[in-house]
């Protein structure tokens, strides 16, 4: 049984495309929840059953709707998987939703077909959540024997009223399904079918998973799969179009930072895991591309391999992290009507920032308590991803302080070069040129002194920008051999021939 903070419970507060009702208005707001929360929860359970199976599985979401909105036929939603056999207790999670949904929208009935790998038969049930008596809720239907066949799986169907809300459901379901594909969960192939029936112009829309994605998911780590999925998500502009030609040309130029954190109880092999991926895109040449002048980021948030509304603790981490240390200026953040975290940037020098956060339990269908623990792990994984990004691309992600210091480098380098080149002391002049790595008069005549000093300064700034104790670790502009303790001159000797090295 899921905990009170499980993602499908949180979705009950974020399923509507209209502005969120306040807590006091929630029960009296237009009850559109069944069109989003019920399919979401069925998909959530199906994914967890596939995870428990630990074998290659398939998840299929099928939606059939009449061609005419006024048709008396209902909208049929089916969620099937080839994971382990379902437990009927799972569906009790829909109790609250069924009570808050008018009968004319959903009668609270689920048709369940399920079987386990070791079962001899396929079992069918009708589950009516509107029934008060528990004995009347479950109706066992005809059983079909498997004739020694070996397989497992579950299919759950529900019928919703065919109203204008069906269009919103289809749009939401397509976007929701696209986000599932971002994770590229191991051993899980996903597909979505939308079928319009009832006239000669019936249309079928199939959204299968790319076979290459399935192969990639088996071979790669979960973090690598998330990186690959997020890249494709960005290159297709959030799957709102085919892959953008302009973005594809720049795929290798995408900058990626990854971070992970976990708190596993080794004795019980339990504990939450958090993975964070940050993807940075440079400005595209095509002004119609979505990677141009994007001053906000919608964070993709996943729990247990399913996209869901972001938790408050994770959102608090996003808006409280020290973004300026990595060159970002956070203007503010908010949670939109669908439960997505949105970060707004100020003076964004980059074209686009995409962020994905995935929290999950190693063992599916287990409870995990403690938002404080989740908050700590999300913060740790996020800072690790930012540090990774900065380590690989230090010049692009200097802290705001480092950027200000770097602005003075050209003028300072010019002044130092002027002092060296204007000196009449040939020994001093040659020593400086040698320390800069310039070994010939040609280098000097070509004006390479100032660029060399500038390059060294920038490298030092970038190096120190990644260190916490800069004073203890900062290198010198001109690195020289250190004097041994035995060769230190005693001030009492009064040796005035001491030579100070740059």
TrEMBL record:
> What InterPro entries does the annotation carry?
MTOPVIB_plant
List the PANTHER family hit by this protein, alphabetically: TYPE 2 DNA TOPOISOMERASE 6 SUBUNIT B-LIKE
Stated name of the protein: Type 2 DNA topoisomerase 6 subunit B-like
Q: Write down the species.
A: Urochloa decumbens
Q: What are the leading ranks of the lineage?
A: Eukaryota, Viridiplantae, Streptophyta, Embryophyta, Tracheophyta
